[in-house]
Design brief:
The chain is mainly beta. It is built from one helix and six strands. The strands form two sheets. It has a four-stranded antiparallel beta sheet, with no helix packed on it.
Length: 118
């Protein structure tokens, strides 16, 4: 597994915010500077850090695989998002946010995130 350590910047302080689907260029800047990126041996890309909007801890797993049908007996390793490519990330924190639809996670923040080296 390749690990890209976060830079030495403190996490955002947690804030009380309601659920709103919103983006801001500053979200990307914050996340790319502070999120840890891991490339698990099973494939994909795992992002971990504090949401740039609400400040709560979150994880986001990205893969290029779409599941179709029942699980095969032998599952291939999922492809990893290309290094240097942009992927859309959404807040997946487990904290409560007023107005969040049932069965949703996070505060509604989303942003583009550039995948680090493979």
């Amino acid at each position: 597994m390749t690990v890209i350590p976060p830079r030495d910047e403190p996490p955002a302080a947690a804030r009380v915010v309601g659920y709103v689907e919103v983006t801001d260029p500053g979200f990307r800047t914050h996340a790319e500077a502070t999120f840890r990126q891991d490339r698990p041996s099973r494939g994909g890309l795992l992002l971990r850090g504090h949401c740039p909007r609400c400040g709560h801890y979150m994880t986001y797993y990205a893969t290029d695989v779409v599941v179709r049908g029942l699980l095969p007996l032998r599952r291939p390793r999922p492809p990893t998002p290309a290094a240097g490519g942009d992927l859309t990330v959404i807040c997946t924190c487990a904290e409560e946010h007023a107005g969040r639809p049932e069965d949703y996670e996070g505060c509604g923040a989303y942003w583009l995130h550039q995948a680090g080296p493979a």
